[in-house]
Write a structure and sequence with these properties.
Blueprint: H1 14-31, H2 38-45, H3 49-53, H4 59-73, H5 83-99, H6 103-116, H7 118-146, H8 155-172, H9 181-195
């Protein structure tokens, strides 16, 4: 027997959710996580606070839900047919994520906030870090199946090798990737992964 939606139950309207999502990202980019508030988001989105609470129970749940959805949507793991092609495409996607005009301002603040708030750090790792790593791990599984990498390849370490240089260059050094950086990094990563076999 199918269940009916109770009379008077709230129906979440996609355009309202989109307006709220954009408002959350704008507030995070402009003011940071510590100063983020449900009131400010509701005002910027042009909705009542009840619209937010119908979707999320707290500021943390709202922020992480929006950041997670935004980040996962930007993960691109195309199957180019080769490990080199997959690595290069993954580096492109990572660079686009880290250099996005809004997210480039959100991420450093979020990293600093997780250092002060370990509970938030666990949530960020669970909702943002792990899904991104799990999807990207697919390029190494495919390479192993194609015989490009040995079966005992340390995928967890390989994932660190992809993310660390790009994050360090863009977020820590504030340097650009330039015309050949990602190509050169791809070659270095391929040599490093081959050296571990």
């Amino acid at each position: 027997m199918s269940r009916r939606t109770p009379t008077g139950a709230a129906v979440l309207q996609p355009q309202v959710t989109e307006a709220i999502t954009e408002a959350v990202l704008d507030e995070l980019a402009e003011n940071g996580y510590a100063r983020l508030s449900m009131e400010a988001v509701a005002k910027r989105a042009g909705v009542g606070k009840s619209a937010l609470y119908r979707r999320w129970a707290s500021k943390q749940e709202m922020a992480m839900g929006v950041i997670c959805a935004y980040s996962i949507a930007m993960i691109s793991v195309p199957d180019t047919g080769t490990l080199r092609g997959d690595l290069r495409a993954s580096l492109d996607a990572l660079t686009q994520w880290l250099t996005h005009p809004r997210f480039a301002r959100i991420l450093p603040d979020l990293v600093a906030e997780t250092a002060r708030n370990p509970e938030l750090g666990e949530v960020v790792g669970l909702l943002v870090g792990e899904p991104k790593r799990e999807r990207t791990a697919e390029i190494f599984r495919r390479a192993i199946q194609r015989g490009e990498l040995p079966r005992d390849t340390d995928i967890d370490l390989a994932l660190d090798l992809i993310a660390a240089p790009v994050y360090w260059r863009l977020a820590v050094r504030a340097a650009e990737t330039g015309l050949t950086y990602l190509d050169d990094l791809t070659d270095v990563l391929l040599r490093a992964l081959s050296a571990t076999s």
